[in-house]
Every structure is written in C-alpha cells, then in structure tokens.
Amino acid sequence: MHLQLYFEGYRSIDKIGLSFLLNAAASTVVAGVLAARSEWFVRAAGMALAIGTLVAFVLSRRGNGLLDFREQGLNPSPQAIIALVAEITALGLLLATFLPAIVDEPTPQAITTTGYSLAMSAVVMVGLGAYWASHYDSTPATSGNGVGIANFVFGPADLTVAAGDTVTWTNGDAFDHTVVATDLTFRSDNLGRDAMFQFTFDQPGTFAYVCGIHPQMQGTVTVTG
Questions:
Q1: What's the mean per-residue pLDDT of the chain?
Q2: The whole model's pTM is what?
C-alpha cells in the first residue's frame, strides 16, 4: 500500500514521499527474511516496523500532522483501511509467535533460502513499482479559468479572473480533495479523480482557499473589477 500510494502521488510531497518509499523498502526486506527465517530477532524487527507504521498513521492525523503533512480520518480510501488492517494483523501474528521463536534455531535450509526469499520480494516490489509508475498520471487538462489538482498541488496556485467569471477545479489525483475558501465563501464536496467543482466570482477581491482534507494545499483567486 505504501508503495502504491507513493506512485499515486505522495512522491511529490517533500519528506512524506521519501518516508513512504523507505517504509515499502523496509517492509520488503522484513517480509523476505520472515518468509525464510523464524528467529525471534527477525520477528522483533517485523513488530518494530508494524508499530512504527501505526504510530506514524496516528501522528499524521493529529495536530500539524507528520513531517509537515496532515491526512484526515481513513483517507485515502480504501488504502488507509487496508494498510491499517494489515499492520494490526501482522503485529498480532508476530506477537503470537514471538516467544516460541526465541527457542528456535535456524536450520541450514532456512539460511540457504533467505537469499532466494529476499530476491523474490525485491522482484515483486520492483515489478509493482514499475507498473504503478507508468499507470498513474496526475495531469488534469485545464484551460481558461481552470485550476488543476495534481500531485497535491493546485495549479495555478494563484489565478486572476474578472468579476462574473466562473472558475473550474478539476481533480487529477487518485485521492479525494476539496476546495474550501478560508472565509467559507465557497466549499466543494469531496472530489474524486476527474471530478470538477465550479464557482462564479461576482465580487472583486482576493479569495484564499485550501484543500479541506490536506490543508497544506493552498491557492488564491484574485477577482478584478
């Protein structure tokens, strides 16, 4: 899930994108070793990774978020729910088998197959990464008084229109976004991929807005008389 989310758009976010990629890489290594070996320290590494991922999940939804990025609830859906269930399940299974693993000794066969297991995990990760890298393209088509939403950015972030003009926002991301004026002049529903929101500006002024789900996404519309 973290690898998919990275290529779906999180790779464009400073710090958070790298953390998602590192989490996917660490998960690949731990999964490969777990498939071949049963020592307690391997299971401890798996539990540490699961706990760290769950803590990051909670922190990213509290206060100012994690690494200057904040998510909301169980967004993005369904990836957030799947990842949450997977981490909790993995943690439970590793805890249940942790004590028996302390008395186990690695067998020559387990040691021999570790390399093969890691290689298979790496092949799966690279294959999925290549697929998602070419599959997801966040480039909504906009023209005139249009604002595209792509890679967690409003583009153009600053738009100038005349009074009476209608502005159209189009979401090109694989994740839901919203368009919310800071003075609540306008507010969209959740916008899925390719969904649009329109608002007609009748009064001159400068109108700042954010994504209600990802408040670090900001933009302005300047309306001239």
A1: 88
A2: 0.77
